[in-house]
Design goal:
Helices cover about 40% and strands about 15% of the residues. The chain is built from 26 helices and 19 strands. The strands form six sheets. Strands 2, 3, 4, 5 and 10 form a five-stranded mixed sheet that branches. The protein has a five-stranded antiparallel sheet with strand order 12-11-19-18-17. It is elongated and about 140 Å long.
Length: about 700
Amino acid sequence: MIRRSPRIVTEAMQTYSFSRRAWLLGTAQAGVGVLLAARMGWLAIAQNEKYNLLAESNRVNLTMIPPRRGWIIDRHGAPIANNRTDFRIDIIPDRLEGGDAGRDRVLGLLTRLLDLTPDDVERIRIDLKGAAGFQPVQVAENISWDRFAAISLRQPELPGVAPTRGFARAYPAGAAVAHLTGYVGAANAEQFKKTRDPLLVTPGFKLGKDGLEKQLETQLRGTPGAKRVEVTARGKVVAELPTRADVPGKTQRLTIDAGLQEYAARRLGTNSGSTVVMDCRTGEMLAMVSMPAYDPNSFSDGISHLEWKMLSDDDHVPLMNKVTQGLYPPGSTVKPMNGLALLAAGVGAHDRIVCSGALRVGTGIFHCHKKGGHGPLDLKGAIEQSCDIYFYEMIRRLGYDKIAPIARMVGLGQKFDLPIATQRYGTVPDSEWKLRKYKHNWTVADGLNASIGQGYVLANPLQLAVMAARIASGRTLQPSLLANHVHLDAPALPVASDHLAIVRDAMYGVINQGGTGAAARMLVPGVAIAGKTGTAQVRRITMAERRSTGVIKNGQLPFKMRDHALFVGFAPADNPRYAIAVVLEHNGHTVRNLDTPMIGRDIMTYLFDRDRAMKSLADVEPTWGGDIGTRMTAQAAAYRAAQSPPPAANATKTDATVPSDSDAVEAATDLANQTQAALATPGPVGNTVAEDGTTERSEP
């Protein structure tokens, strides 16, 4: 047996222990090396783009360039909303020289050259304190070429001042398209907090605030460009780098005819009202006008507080789109639709009702607009003469629940697929609706009121135009505004063709065969219009009033208490191509009670004989005080004079007009909408049974 010495054993153990530690240490070092190599590879290869961008952002600062908005054009390619050159002045804080003294000198010179107000200067000072060195601070926008040239010429004296040519929104037709296009404005604080998009706080950027500008914001906005400058670690500008161009937004083509739109707006004159024109073949909307309106060019530039107050105080509500937000009792314009329902319910076209001028129902008396009565009338005669008693009696027999489904079928009570945010779709009442809403049963009086488009029935002008178009075409047309979203191949109405023919013939007679709408007769050779006039009462007339002073004429009443005047129609009567609805607020039975059918006639004439229509407009427009722009300027001047206190002795005249922010404008629009919502709450309005059991009607 071999015995090893203790020394050898100790050396062997030490050698083994050292080899194990060396192996472990080497393995650990190799592992760390592999990890480091992998991390370096990850950073150098996989994360290369990320860190290149970070390094670039430390070296290069980007200033966004607002993108040019896409145009809005009409069906023929004419601009409805486009972009004009905008001259603006900014200050780059990092390029100011001479410290506070240099800044004050530059601001003083800018104040003199641009006629800045003290409020403007104070705002600029605050913005300069909060801005990064390379971030531009807006001094003024939308300045004249002369002032822009003056600043450019004196650039050597204005270090840090950057004259810039940009683009601003423009609306060639002005107020005529205000409620169609809406307007653009600067983003408010809430909009920025919601998205944190730096573009929203970029000087010169504006986004859609109302109308199509708001609803089509995604398509119209485009992609911003960028102005690139190389800076030091402290933000000092070293050099300017190539600029990245913006990408304009997409052009949006509408179904609107810009010429017709502007003509219709002018033809409405000084009335508070609206009109819609539709193509009976496709449902395309050719005009959608609400007047009076605001000038979207002024809104886009930033309106003054005085202008905002003038618009919000106006009892004609120019901030509201009456086409989709105005709700009115449709009056006698529903009688052709009622005729379809009666025929569908089995009433014969030649069944007669004798109109004596009044109808007693229980303890109540319902009057016709013709006090002496019309005598015996069939359906066609009742529509032509707008006889109330005929429809009272027929619907008393059948019940209004037989009428309501047909009303919905032709478009009343419907909300349409349109790029319009706010649509009020009114009321088509029936017994189930009243029980659900008011917890009361439907009464005979409710049905009689509804039969002549009063009581609980409410509709907006767009729905009335759709009703006329569907009766004219015999199809369930859907209105459209975007040329790439037209609802073609609409199915036929579930109505017998001979019933439609009877009603169309009656509407032809309203205009051309001694009916109530003779004022709408077309003067274009070979073209006839079919239609129906209507009047909607907005106040209750009692027997007490009739006995004491007599029924007060509309012209003697305050504006808000006058009746509404309505007209629907289509042309040519024998082969319908266009349908129209016109609603004039509080204009029924005044000295101008022929306005509504004549406006409808002239707008239709524009589609068939433009020169004749323009001549008709030229004859009447001067009597209203000129065109829309002239009247709005005069109105603003009169309002400004009325609001301004008389100047004190030795007082210095100053311009108190300060651009308002977009929040104030939006608040004014919301106020108008809330006011209309309160006025349009469904209720028993108009030809309602009075306290003494009677009703009063004036005219169809």
